[in-house]
Amino acid sequence: MSRRTLVLSLVTAGCVGDLAAEGSKYYPDGTDSGGGTSTSAPADTGMQGSGDSVQTVTGEVPTTTAGPGEPSSTTSEELPGAGPEIVSFLFEPAVLNEAGSAQPVAVVSADVVELSLEHEGAELWSGPPPLTWSFAATSSAASDGEYTFVLTARDGKGQETTADAKLWVSLPPSGTEKCVFEEDAGSGWLTAVEYGGDALVVAGALAKPSLEATLWRLDPNSCQPQAGYPWAISQWTASPLVVPPSQAVGLAIDELGRMAIAANIGSGLARRSYVAVLSPQGALEWEHVGPVGETYSGIAAAPGRIVVVGEKLVNEMPPQYDGLVESFDLEGTLLWSDVLAAPLPGDDWDDQFNSFDEHPRAVTWHEDGNVLVVVGERHVFENNDKFVRAFSAQYNASGSVLAAWTSSGLDSSDDGLSTATSCGGGIVAGGWVQDGNTARTPATRWLDFMGNGSGKRRLDALKDTSIRGIACDREEKFSAAASNDTNAFALSFRTSDDPFVFKLNLAGTTLTATDCDARGFCVVTGLKGERAWARVHHP
């Protein structure tokens, strides 16, 4: 059984018999100067269990009147305590039917100085009140079962008592649908998704009637749009440069909880890049419109900044591209911009005429390495021929390239990367492999600390499909959105050699992105038919 932490609320029972009422806990061991006497019943010094009665003591508080030349004094002896008491101990809720937390609530007597919690003989937590602990149910496979927890309360004299409480966990199987969102106000699609603190945020494009970059905030439990959404680019901007058509291509939540959207406006070779940061209420904080010929494909939040990646048109006939990486501070000031072009670190050839393309597809912040990791596809020249190969590049926060890796064609003649996520202190990227004229199949690569993805990898035999989105859940399982233009799979797996936790064929859909929340729920987004569509599933 899984043992997880739980938030323990310690509520002091201030009225437990009043424990003989503050000023009446004494009995005399002699007579006062007036010759009066007082008597009391002896106290029970054994351990009191939950629900035991509390004895009360009645009588006068003895006093001593000083005689001539004698100091004033009071002689008394404290009444032995009734022992600690656990008035109640239970879980709220007592049954978990989906991933989430359960909190035990304990009401104990005021003399308790230490509590300890155990499960199956193993101590989970101990210390003086108050303390915080919480049980987390993450998936059916990891968490289902009946749990009995034992709480021990101790007072300052070492007396103790115990009580137990049960928690039942029965979760739906992994991959079971939790809720579905489908936009019915016009044709469109979703290209990006991010769980915020209180909303599932999705972005893409919606035609009503012109195609516009559009944002939705959904209830994470029901998938219903929050009031005021969908929210189109024409509603939040007044910039004359922002004209239809437009579409969002990336989404991030910054450290202030704001929504950062990467988009492209215009069409064909005349497109422009666009980035905007909106408040959680949808108000525009700042925006930036790039020059004609620059487009974005991904966005990420890093400490104190927003980073976008895309490409820069360097030749129109035929169209040729270099990679583009830009960083903005939280107020929208451009901190640095870099053109990502051959030769990159590790290349043994140059690109004298700039005829080999670089296409960054995604960027993520790697907190442990303190680096920005860019992944994508690039053209390379090998054996007198041109190939498309996966690549990664690592930047520091100041915009310097620290390392780069390009696939050598170990698994196929061509390959690429479309998405990346941080997981368990590492970086995992998803994409595709293709050998000659055969159909593409999904590939997942674990990047080492230098960004090299040729070591640990996973290749799945899903014909004519590539991984377009990847995310890491609370159990460090992977959620992947694998798709072509007519068919899609929602996938879950643990590592490179394991079978799928689930493989769902979502017929009639195209998937583009995925993300997971703090509880472990994951979502895949894209379109179904001609409608923007998203599906949340149980972890």
From TrEMBL:
Residues 21-81 are annotated as: Disordered. Residues 50-77 have a biased composition (Polar residues). InterPro entries: Quinoprotein_ADH-like_sf. PROSITE patterns: PROKAR_LIPOPROTEIN. This is Uncharacterized protein. It comes from Nannocystis radixulma.
